[in-house]
Every structure is written in structure tokens, then in C-alpha cells.
Amino acid sequence: MADEVWTDAYGAWLKALGDLTGSADRLMEWQNRRYLFAHRLGQLLTMPHSGSAAVKGPVVYGVQLPGVGLSYVGQTRSSERRLRDLAVGESHHLGNTVPPEIWERVIVVPWPQLVGGLPEAEQKVAAHGAGEECGLALEHRLQMVAKPVLNARKRTNEGEWRERDLAGSKSRGALTARQLPTLFSLVWEVWQRLSVMPAPGDGDPVVGLPEGRVVFPSLIA
Asked: Cβ contacts of residue 199 below 8 Å, gap of 6+?
């Protein structure tokens, strides 16, 4: 029965897309609406909002989906670019797999603002390589702890998937993560707060805090 429901839903989705793009005028309107939505989401993820500062530089971020919860975790040293591209297919084609119009929330934590309270040894690790290894380390730890389903496997050249061995990883992120226990604890505390914060009652799609922000795509007009 579950397979039948999935097949029926997939067929309905294909028919709806056909209806939405079935003429030149409809195709142009479809492109307009999707671009405007993606552009607005990118602005809300990065621009100053309701007293909170613009999001710039290194961040870790995640996307929650209805019925799934946290589904994807990523990191970037250039959030002003990557977060604007998130809705159009960056980050392992997340936006192509799950349309951003149905994302439940996007969590953004600019971790460099937490570095000042770290032990000296961790501050040196966080500063190395302009923070690249640090971002990878936080991404790895978040994936290990939160287990987002879209990070759990990798594509192969044969058009299939294989499971990722996060626990046995020897990547730069996995190796650096062992040197940043305090920073991860601080990031994880902020992340957990943002992951359950309710949407504003006034319809505003953003909750901005000094430690990070949450954007609710479903509230974008």
C-alpha cells in the first residue's frame, strides 16, 4: 500500500508540473515564481532583519522538513553566497531533491562569534586555514549527532548510492572535530534552541538572535 501511495503521489506531481509548464506563458510564470521565492529566501537567510546583523562569512546550517525533521546539514566559509544559492540546488542538490517551498525551517549558526569564549588551544585550531577545518569539523559533528538523512549517503558514478561511514571517517573535518569539543558544545546548544523555536505569530518568516537565525520558508509570501 505504501508503494501505491508513493507512486500515486509521484504521478500527481508529474501531472501538476506538466500543467504548470504546459505553455510558453505558463513556463515563464513558473520560472518567475520559483526565482522570486528562491531570491526572497536567500535574502532572509543573509540580510539584516528585525535588528539582527547580516549573516556573513563562516556558518553551519541545516534544513528541517515536515515529517522528517533535520534532513540536511552543511557548512560554508562564504555564507553570503552559499545561503543565497541554497534554494537553487547548491549543497548536494538539496534544492533539486526537495523544493524549498516545502522546507519547514532553515537553521543558521555563524560559529566564529562563539570562538572568543574558547580555551586558547581551541581558538588556535579555529583560526587555522581561515576556519575551513573548523567549519568542516562542526559539520561532521552535527551529522554524527543529529543524523540528517540526506547526509547519510553519497552518490556513485554508477547512478546509485552508498552509505557514508561517518564514525570511521578520516576526513579533515573528522580529525579536526576531536580538537574542538568546547566549540561544538556551544554550537550544539544554539542549534538545539533554534531547532525548536516557534515561528513568529505575526507571520514574519525569520527569528533572528545574536547567536543565529531561523527562517521559515512556508511563511514567505
From this structure: 105, 205, 207, 216, 219
**Is residue 197 within 8 Å of 208, Cβ to Cβ?**
no
* DSSP SS3 for 206: strand
Tell me the C-alpha distance between 27 and 18, whole Å: 10
Give the pLDDT confidence of 132-175 residue by residue, as tens digits.
789 999 999 999 999 999 999 988 999 999 999 988 898 999 99
Q: Model-level pTM? A: 0.93
Distance from chain centroid for Cα 29 = 27
- Rounded to whole angstroms, how far apart are CA atoms 93 and 91? 5
Give first-to-last CA distance, the chain, whole Å: 36
Find how far residue 160's CA is from the centre of its chain.
23
What is the sign, positive or negative, of the torsion defined by CA atoms of 116, 119, 122, 127? positive
Q: Which residue has the cell 525548536?
A: 196
Q: Kindly report, residue by residue over 203-221, the tens digit of the pLDDT.
A: 899 998 889 999 999 999 7
The residue length of the chain stands at: 221
C-alpha 186, offset from chain centre: 19
